[in-house]
Design a protein that fits this description.
Length: about 350
């Protein structure tokens, strides 16, 4: 029986050839237990061409200095906190940093409002615990503990969704580089190469602020939204192609003209003004992030392929647009309707989108 193809491969698997090429070409100093040097890690994230002609595809479009600061942080004993609104590639960058540095991005803790401290520390195999009592064999290490033992990168997603008292379980780990195990009267000491990347956003409901003691253990790097329309269009185009390939959707189903139009709408509503700056607009409560633009295009792509002409048109993205923009059924709906009437309707080349959006509003 053939091995089932995963919907989404981990970064270290999807980009294995690039990582191996970088390892072969890397002549820069490499910290203990790092697979690549800091220079090579930044090249892997930002893209470039190696001396042998190997093309390294960009994983992040934006200010190179942001990535350099993040990588330099991980080369010290300081943990890294990536912050920003949803959709600014925090998780994406976190995964690729772990893949490039440790060759393993799977040591991940997903933060939730109901998470217990054991998810950051360790748990127990209760059948074995009852049969044998507390022992190393009965202990179930968390991804963070495993990363400490292996000298690799651990990832904590949505740190501010975790209850404050559980967050503070990280303080000893990050300051002392040790994890006490009082049941065994011992502790786990972190091996060189261990560090932690956390992500957090300040626009999510249920945010738990970090204590000052914990925040001091992190170097914080703010992940901005794409600076220009062209940059954001390129990000959406690349990610749509990658996701579409995993979902077996043809790349020609998402024309760049439609992506550009969608991104323009998101940027105008986010900024509260039209691209030319001549008209002020009301902004909806939704974040209208790059990630949401990618989702709208992928949904439209699927509609076009399975129920349409094969290439996205206005009717394929109108429904996704409505769902992305209108989170508050009253306030956001009025804002979207006003935008349709004052901006979309006045752009002659957007009449198809105006009609398709009005039809479902």
């Amino acid at each position: 029986m053939s091995t089932p193809t995963p919907i989404r491969a981990q970064a270290e698997d999807a980009y294995r050839a690039e990582l191996e090429a970088l390892r072969a070409a890397d002549e820069h100093p490499c910290p203990t237990n790092w697979q690549l040097s800091p220079w090579a890690v930044v090249t892997y994230i930002m893209g470039g061409e190696l001396e042998d002609g190997t093309e390294i595809t960009p994983k992040y479009y934006g200010n190179r200095r942001i990535i350099e600061v993040a990588v330099a942080t991980l080369a010290t004993d300081r943990a890294l906190l990536l912050t920003g609104i949803p959709g600014t590639a925090k998780t994406w960058v976190s995964e690729h940093l772990a893949a490039a540095i440790s060759g393993n991005s799977k040591r991940l803790v997903q933060g939730t409002a109901g998470m217990a401290e054991e998810a950051l520390r360790y748990g127990w195999n209760y059948a074995r615990l009852l049969a044998e009592g507390p022992s190393e064999k009965a202990m179930v290490p968390s991804p963070v503990m495993t990363a400490m033992q292996k000298g690799s990168i651990a990832r904590v997603e949505e740190l501010t969704r975790i209850p404050s008292d559980v967050q503070d379980a990280l303080i000893t780990i990050l300051s002392e580089k040790a994890l006490p195990v009082p049941e065994l009267n011992t502790e786990v000491r972190a091996v060189r190469g261990f560090n932690l990347i956390a992500t957090a956003n300040d626009r999510d409901k249920g945010v738990n602020e970090l204590s000052s003691a914990l925040r001091r253990r992190f170097n914080t790097v703010a992940m901005p939204l794409p600076a220009s329309l062209e940059e954001e269009v390129e990000i959406v185009k690349q990610r749509v192609a990658q996701i579409g390939d995993s979902l077996e959707l043809p790349p020609q189903a998402a024309p760049v003209e439609e992506i550009q139009r969608l991104v323009t709408i998101f940027r105008e509503l986010r900024s509260g003004k039209t691209q030319d700056g001549r008209r002020k607009l009301k902004s909806p409560s939704s974040t209208l992030s790059t990630a949401e633009a990618i989702s709208v295009v992928n949904s439209g792509q699927a509609l076009a392929v399975h129920f349409g002409s094969g290439a996205i048109n206005a009717s394929d993205i109108a429904g996704g647009l409505l769902g992305a923009i209108v989170k508050d059924p009253v306030q956001d709906r009025n804002i979207w309707e006003e935008y349709l009437e004052t901006v979309v309707k006045e752009r002659k080349e957007w009449q198809d989108l105006y009609e398709a959006s009005r039809a479902i509003l």
